[in-house]
Amino acid sequence: MDTKTLKKETNKTQITERISGSEAIIKCLLAEGVDVLYGYPGGAIMPVYDELYKYQDKIHHVLTRHEQGATHSAQGYARISGKVGVAIATSGPGATNLITGIADAQIDSTPMVCITGQVASHLLGSDAFQETDIVGISTPVTKWNCQITKASEIPEVMAKAFYIAKSGRPGPVLIDITKDAQFEEFDFKYKKCKGVRSYNAIPKLNHNEVEAAAKLINEAKKPMIVWGQGVSLGQAETEFKAVVEKAGIPSAWTILGAGAIPTSHPLNIGMVGMHGNYAPNVLTNECDLLIAIGMRFDDRVTGNLSTYAKQAKVIHFEIDPAEIDKNVKTDVAVLGDAKESLAALLPLLDEKSYPEWHQNFKDLYAIEYEKVIKNDIHPTKEGLTMGEVLKEINSQTKGDAAIVTDVGQHQMIACRYANFNKTRSNITSGGLGTMGFGLPAAIGAKMAAPNREVISISGDGGYQMTIQELGTIFQQKVPVKIVVLNNEFLGMVRQWQQLFFDKRYASTEMTNPDFVAIAKGYFIEAEKVTKREDLKEAVAKMINTDGPYFLEVCVEKEDNVFPMIPTGASVSDVRLE
Amino acid sequence: MEAEKNIYTVSVYTENNIGLLNRISAIFQRRHINIESINSSVSEIEGVSKFTIVVIVTEDQMKKIIGQIEKQVEVIKAYFHTDEGTIYQESCIFKMKSDLLFEERQIQNIIKESNARIVTVNRDFFVIEKSGRKEEIELIYRELSAFGIMQFTRSGRIAVTKDEMKISTMLEAFQA
Questions:
Q1: Residue A143 with chain B: CB contacts under 8 Å
Q2: Whole-model pTM?
Q3: What is the pLDDT of residues A183-222, one digit of tens each?
Q4: Using CA atoms, how far apart are residues A551 and A544, in angstroms rounded to an integer?
Q5: With an 8 Å Cβ cutoff, is A329 touching chain B?
């Protein structure tokens, strides 16, 4: 008996070792399963980089060409894998350069941990060289942030950072560590964080709500599902598909939801929102039950809220209580993790189908095909369209590629015309609309999923915002395929200028450099296509190249993306031309 | 049609962390809402801090803001109350010239009638303290200002609710 107790206690006592704060940071990262991090060194983070040098066989540091690129790479890594992406930077400008990526990760619920160096604690507040209040600056755009001034705080704070970034509705966490804390030695031991008393990651599922939801679903005559990223974030793809198929409900997606069930699935009725498909937008205002799953009723999805689905009852499956009734009032709110909620819902559903109701979607699709899609993907005019490029890439990759887009016209076209066979295949900046996201995000995505084809598709505008990351691709030999759809305009802004500002093209015309020469300057194979007859072969060459590859496609200069819901209009007033 | 705005008292139970005040006030700032008063103190539970914030917003805004506050990792629980749901007080102190205390009889009457008290008197100045509702404090301020106030400070509202707060139960549930 005595020996037994003794043994138990010995097990409890973890072995501690005396190490520096900076080594502790590396050990924490390793304990959290981090194998790659993206960053840029500098004065206040040098002790950590010194440890990274020693640990380079265990943890791979990717030197990006700008700290913003580090965050987007970490985001791409997280979005394709579901793991926490890690970015690291020095104090001052290094830290402030992370902010765009952090804000992007916050609004798109991407798990990310950012580590910044900070001036020594005795210098805090003294306007020291490269001192900036990064905790203050990042507060509104982080899920959590914290400054460490003592090495002994490192293990607990790092464990908490990873737990918070990943759990519940994921998000970015920033940890700022003073240089003296990096140097200081202490007795290190690591314990993973399993909970924070003030933070309820996943609300407890209320079965009465699930039953109420099932009742509404079973009674509905014209139900419609709109799903978002919550399905893939909750790894609920299987449960979701089962629910959709059993209940036989036509289902539409937000851009971050794309691929949770394949584009080709018979009940997948397309994308909702400003440039979404005609049918789901129009019929949002005709359904009698709107079932929102893991989405947040963004204004780009809903258009004018006062005319959004007013005729319908609304069920909201959601992990974040703050989203309930935030934009759209719900009749039944099911709080919880999508996987658990949908699994609980499934047995309560009647097996049904809605052939007549579903036919409405098909009829409206036929109209959209005739007016928009046909001209986008099988154009008869001379100039190349973005749509046909997308279709070509998509058919040659058989819909299995991960498409990483930037922001603008090409992004909407990619979401509209790519077939996503697999979940986590549409990696894009949704909520923040960050131009420059695509190229660095593709680096992270490819590194996290080396066996997947990863294709970065950008416009000529956004591409130039983070074009320097070609250097990272070159140095790291990341075999991403880079496509730039060049229309020599900031296309989406130009489209708005055409439609709403009487064609006053204020600062949207781009005089571009020789993109092929730039890619070649980084020793990346490159080609430029200007004619339709060359497209197929060029895409084939790109896909069959082992290493990174750059393909510029010159497309029609003044094409517009339709359908379109103008700002302030109702979803059912979606324009086809 | 603009919804009606009300005075709400927000109680936020939190971990005691650096930067949390910034995080909470940013929620109001982002929505262009002015904070009428804010007070931070310990609460009835050891190790748990409490913010008492007064804002004038619509009920719908209030509910959404509470959601956003509770979403913050280090916030344990946030509540909002109307004036009817709370017992609340503010406190204020006046610094005035000592001569006045002897020359102006009226000041002593004001102190008595308003249930204020003298905290300290020295050769140069004396200090009056008054706790009460905002209107009472405004009244004594108006009355004393006629004699010249050297310094004046009013605290933020502090409040307790008529209903029970279930924070302890919540925290116990976590420990279990």
A1: 73
A2: 0.95
A3: 999 999 999 999 999 999 999 999 999 999 999 999 999 9
A4: 13
A5: no
